[in-house]
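Why does this matter for the project? Reviewers at the last site visit asked to see concrete outputs rather than summary tables. In response, this paragraph embeds two records directly. Each consists of the residue sequence and, immediately after it, the corresponding structure tokens. Nothing has been edited or filtered.
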Amino acid sequence: MRHVLARFPDLLRPLLPGVALCGAVSLLATMAAGVEVRLFGQAWLEPLVLAILIGTALRTAWTPGPRWVPGIHASAKTLLEVAVMLLGASIDPKTILAAGPGLLAGIAGVVAAALTASYGIGRLLGLPKRMAVLVACGNSICGNSAIAATAPVIGAHSDDVAASIAFTAVLGVLVVLGLPLLVPLLGLNPMEYGVLAGLTVYAVPQVLAATAPVAAVSVQVGTLVKLVRVLMLGPVVFTLALLAARQPQEEGQAGEGTGRRLRAHHLVPWFILGFLGLAGLRAAGLVPQALLAPMAAASGVLTVLSMAALGLGVDVRMVARAGVRVTAAVVLSLLALGAIGVGLIDLLNL
């Protein structure tokens, strides 16, 4: 242990330039979001979206050399995994369970159906399997956060992650602007609209922006439904980890190392176990209230850092080549999710 601690500064030193670069991009993204708030009253593009866009722009103009690469890679992987783990402390299962089993089961069913439909749409449009999974998870669960959490589990390429997040971000803004128009068109009451917004809007801040113009009830219900979708992230990523571990064997590539690949700590990424563990501790009241805000803030900062790192690792030409198919897949998947959500509302007769 002492030997490891003694070597820790030497292990950390090569990462500092790349991490500092990601930090600079993140700071610029946060400042840009602040400018949005001053100009428009709210940030339509969140810092994590701006971070990946700024990082991609920087990468387009300049290719980082070997000095920067280790820290960029660590920020894109390890810091992202820590951020996802810390998200577990923000989930309160007690509040979710208070909504009633019918709505909870319906939301889980919508997520499952939307995942299947979105993945099928992506594959029909010719997207690679990993890209189709990213689009499906982003649309069906929680947008950028789901894409970011799923990517390391399925081994997605940074170009695919960046493309999925970029198109999801743009569409997310359009959804926030256009979704309230469905209230008179579909004759939705505030609770029904809250359920629809919670099922279709990607990020929690965007749910607030989409529901606030309608009613306070819409805000409360939309946020609750959105949190249930976020809670689905753990089981979905766990399932994807199982499928990813089985894939080599199914393709006839299993060999001497198969047994090692199927061990539990390989099947279930450590950060997902941490996510579920923190959610359980939060439910049991074992996470001090004073720690919740700092943990949420730390998760947010680390997520923005990791998005900057992903942007810095992107070849924009690859993103542009995937653009039309990914855009079509995201749009059609979102329409399918909306249709499934309206079906749930009619079924529950809210």
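We now turn to the second protein, recorded in exactly the same manner.
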Amino acid sequence: MTESAARHTPGTPCWVSLMVHQLATTQEFYGSLFGWEFRPGPDQLGPYVRALLDGHEVAGIGDLPPDRNLPIAWTPYLATDDCDATAEAIRSCGGTVGVGPLDAGEAGRLLIALDPAGAVFGVWQAAEHLGIGTAGTPGTPVWNELVTRETASVAKFYQCVFGYQEDPVVSADYDYLTLRLDDVPVASVHGVGHGLPRERGPHWMTYFEVADVDGTVERVVELGGQVLRPARDGGHGRMATVADPEGAAFTVVHSTE
């Protein structure tokens, strides 16, 4: 993390983390796929590593404790200046705090929560660790989208906790809105109704930038992952949804903007 890196505006996705059963195997997968290198710590999180790309921290991967019944899924962390106050806001706005707030050593303070529909997300109060150190280059997270049944009620929850402005798509058959802070798009919410995967339920999806979507999809399969939704062209570029060997889903995108 460079000293010149700025603190993230509260409500902005500032980090992504993945808790798995096979930490070493997962490191090999993402190291081969994205060119990540790894640095251990913070120790307070148990076996945990931070992924680096060209010396910049871009993501975290940890060992899932046997007694924790959490989904194997990439989890976005939203920035806050006061983790404890955000925990109270989450409860008062209809969400659930599942883990924390707790200190991660000198790095910062965190919690893991569920929104009213059951989607898991994290909250990060930065101290020494500000969050993602670079963005936009291949191998970095570039977007986070909440996939849920319908946008209206759950968007009100996030607006209540983080003060987002909403920018909905006005369409009779497309339930989608963008969350903004100070007119800057920071995340999106996609209501898919009965199209929600039954085995997953509402969830956050992390998008990682890649130079070649089709080549990345082939590499995912070679490394033991699977394709959940084949490569296709969309409004923001070419993208595909894949899963790592433990089943954590993510989307790879080659942005056109």
